[in-house]
TrEMBL record:
Gene3D superfamilies: 2.60.200.20. SUPFAM superfamilies: SMAD/FHA domain. Keywords: Phosphoprotein. Residues 117-166 form the FHA domain. Transmembrane segments: none annotated. Signal peptide: none annotated. This is Peptide-binding protein.
């Protein structure tokens, strides 16, 4: 009888770093191809990092196997097919974004002599947005040296320009999509 502090008498084959690296690569590729959800990918990565035997890794990768063999060993045809599908998907995403941008409410840039336009939920702002995701003092739009600048004022839910979060100040132009929390607008000139 062995105590919990003794090692077993039979040798347990140690998992090689190369085997673990191959498995991690297959998991990354499976997630990139949409075969694993983010949560499943993260959990399997954790399990792969602590796995002790090759059989443990095989269980984690079993549903990622293709007819041609393990993930990553697809035929050139399968690789081309994934490329075509990816490009077609990118086109549909671009069309969807363009369609949504045209349907956004317009935000008219203020007259240059009016000074900075403060945006937020507070009634004292030049543009009051009464939405739960907009902070009291959310952002400020101003003109400096002929360039429009959008500054986030430390909002909780963020300010975005064309889908990218503003940290500090961002240059904006007519046609840009700006967001304050979950409210979005398309900038237009008067």
């Amino acid at each position: 009888m062995t105590s919990s502090f003794e090692f077993p008498a039979y040798p347990v084959p140690r998992l090689s770093d190369a085997e673990r690296d191959r498995a991690l690569g297959q998991l990354r590729e499976g997630a990139a191809l949409g075969k694993l959800s983010h949560d499943t990918f993260m959990r399997r990565m954790e399990l792969a990092l602590v796995a002790r035997r090759s059989e443990d890794l095989a269980v984690l990768l079993a549903d990622l196997q293709t007819r041609e063999g393990p993930l990553g060993a697809e035929s050139p045809w399968t690789h081309r097919l994934f490329g075509w599908v990816g490009r077609a998907s990118a086109v549909s995403v671009g069309v969807r974004r363009a369609w949504q941008a045209e349907r956004l409410p317009k935000l008219l840039l203020p007259h240059p002599a009016a000074g900075p336009l403060r945006i937020g939920r507070d009634p004292g702002n030049g543009l009051r947005l009464s939405h739960d995701t907009v902070s009291r003092a959310h952002a400020e739009l101003s003109l400096r040296d002929g360039v429009w600048l959008l500054k986030d004022l430390g909002s909780t839910n963020g300010t975005t320009v064309n889908g990218r979060r503003v940290t500090g100040v961002a240059v904006v132009r007519v046609g840009d999509q700006v967001g304050f929390g979950r409210m979005s607008f398309r900038l237009t000139a008067g």
